[in-house]
Design brief:
Blueprint (H helix, E strand, L loop, with lengths): L2 E2 L2 E4 L3 H10 L3 E3 L6 H4 L2 E4 L6 H12 L3 E5 L10 E10 L12 E11 L9 E4 L8 E4 L12 E5 L9 E5 L3 H18 L4 E4 L8 E7 L5 H13 L5 E4 L18 E4 L10 H17 L6 E2 L8 H7 L6 E2 L11 E2 L6 E2 L7 H6 L4 H17 L4 E5 L8 H12 L2 E2 L2 H13 L2 E6 L2 E6 L5 E5 L4 E6 L3 E4 L6 E2 L8 H5 L5 H14 L4
Parallel strand pairs: 2-3, 2-4, 4-5, 5-9, 13-14, 13-20, 13-21, 14-15, 16-17
Antiparallel strand pairs: 1-22, 6-7, 8-9, 10-11, 12-24, 18-19, 22-23, 23-26, 24-25, 25-27
Length: 511
């Protein structure tokens, strides 16, 4: 029996589409006129109103052994009792193979807990519906009610070195969110003895490493020091230029080899006003173009995404933008209901650590820890730095590790180009008696394929037939999750964060 390894979506929200595109699975909106079992390996249902005949077809699909992932506060197919509450963070409360790489999910929303599960305090559950396998998955939140890309807060970030650093970032932690949905879909495939396939996140076999410099008020000497470190280590980076500060020597940046020059605005100031944001971007672009610098990307000062910025950017053709109040520490993504591609970075810089009185050795330990965590999960790694901050030397060790690990060093523009090609990659997969048939419109990318929780293979996305029973060339490292005592510190002493927020807001320059 040939089955398409396609996920059928039932009235999907724009947030779900954004997540699935970032994950890279093959999906389409369900066609109830088709044979659902043969055409879809899994279904995703977000609790929309279903006509009785369609609901019956879904039950028939489950009776045949198909997999359904229900993402809802009020499940129709998950039969256990449900409790609801509001939380900033949901913690992982049970060790279950693939999910034990995720310690917590920042949600800042109402969520539902299944009484039959202790996985993520019941946020996630799996049960059997007239099947020998666990073919109904449940995730208890409403994606359409999640805080928007412009909704941010100040969060602490885990560190085993010293006090937790903090930064203003988006309320939702997209990386754990993506993982939870992806791993749930994986399990539903594996329970059916089907492989799980998605698009890979790098143009090469090895994961991506990127480095960003926000030039801000950096002196020419400080900028030169950074470039010399990058050049001596053969590292490509992306420089977001604070144009007003460097207006008298913009030509100097064109001497940088293998570096990308992007726009950080003319003035280093914040605003939600459309005219002020428009003016700041337009003057910056004009000055750069006069210097024969043509930026493909933009990031706003202070990293704050808001509706005014979103409106202004719609009038420009930037290839990407990068604001950690829209998203951080995750794969690139399109902000829901927009065409704005976000390339996310780790939001903590050496300045964040300096405020917590980290020594330079402790800073190095922190960044290498983040590096190893993400590398062990084969995730993109993006760090950033400011020229007038301490700790530049620690990145020598990071860059050496990038080369020794063979990571794919890439600029933001190069990664955005790859990601858009990835979005345009159309692939299909059929599974019949252990044989996998792949068809694709682009043979130059890679597909991720797995039949177990902790290992996978990467295969070219060319037309091919594969006859294998397991895929195990790459193995995830054993996770080392923080204790609940450590996790509870994330929200301890909230007044201290409020004070930091006030000082940050007070000291922020306005346009």
């Amino acid at each position: 029996m040939n089955r398409r390894l396609c996920t059928g979506l039932i009235s999907p929200s724009s947030y779900l589409i954004s997540v699935l595109d970032s994950i890279g699975i093959w999906y389409e909106e369900i066609d109830f006129k088709k044979d659902i079992f043969l055409n879809y390996s899994t279904l995703i249902y977000e609790g929309s109103i279903l006509e009785s005949d369609k609901k019956k077809k879904i039950f028939d699909f489950l009776n045949s052994g198909g997999g359904l992932l229900e993402i809802s506060l009020n499940p129709d197919f998950c039969t256990t009792g449900i409790s609801k509450s509001f939380s900033k963070t949901v913690f992982n409360s049970a060790s279950q193979s693939e999910f034990d790489r995720i310690s917590h999910l920042d949600i800042y929303s109402e969520w539902a807990s299944s009484d039959g599960s202790d996985l993520f305090s019941g946020l996630i559950d799996f049960e059997s519906h007239k099947s020998d396998s666990l073919n109904v998955g449940f995730i208890g939140f409403d994606l359409s009610s999640f805080p928007a890309a412009s909704n941010f807060t100040r969060k602490r970030f885990l560190s085993t070195t010293k006090d937790f650093p903090d930064e203003i970032v988006n309320k939702i932690s997209r990386d754990p969110l993506n993982d939870i949905i992806e791993l749930s879909l994986q399990r539903l495939h594996h329970e059916q003895k089907l492989p799980f396939i998605k698009k890979w996140t790098s143009p090469q076999l090895n994961p991506v490493f990127g480095f960003r410099i926000d030039s801000d008020y950096g002196s020419k000497e400080a900028l030169t020091e950074i470039y010399q470190l990058l050049n001596s280590n053969n590292i490509q980076a992306t420089w977001f230029l604070h144009v007003q500060e460097h207006e008298l020597y913009l030509d100097y940046f064109k001497s940088f080899k293998n570096q990308e020059l992007a726009l950080h605005g003319y003035k280093h100031g914040y605003s939600s006003s459309v005219p002020k944001i428009e003016e700041n971007i337009q003057i910056g672009l004009t000055k750069l173009k006069q210097a024969d610098i043509h930026p493909n990307g933009f990031c706003t000062p202070y990293g704050i995404w808001n509706s005014g910025l979103e409106k202004v950017l719609s009038g420009y053709d930037f290839n990407y933008t990068s604001e950690f109040t829209a998203g951080y520490d995750c794969a690139p993504f399109l902000i829901p209901d927009s065409e704005h591609l976000q390339i996310a970075v780790h939001p903590i810089c050496t300045g964040s650590l300096s405020r917590k009185r980290y020594s330079e050795d402790q800073m190095k330990e922190y960044f290498l820890e983040i590096y190893e965590q993400r590398k062990s999960l084969f995730k993109p790694i993006f760090f950033y730095h400011h020229p007038m901050q301490k700790g530049l030397g620690l990145f020598q060790d990071v860059f050496e590790r990038v080369h020794s690990d063979g990571l794919t060093n890439i600029t933001f523009h190069e990664y955005a180009n790859f990601w858009k090609d990835r979005d345009n990659l159309e692939f299909s997969a059929g599974f019949n008696e252990g044989k996998l048939q792949i068809e694709s419109n682009n043979p130059n990318q890679y597909l991720y394929i797995t039949t177990s929780a902790n290992e996978f293979d990467l295969i070219p996305s060319k037309d091919q037939c594969i006859d294998k029973t397991s895929y195990s060339s790459f193995k995830y490292a054993s996770p080392s999750l923080p204790s609940f005592v450590e996790l509870e510190k994330l929200h301890s002493n909230p007044l201290k964060l409020v004070k930091t927020n006030f000082l940050d807001w007070k000291n922020r320059q306005r346009l």
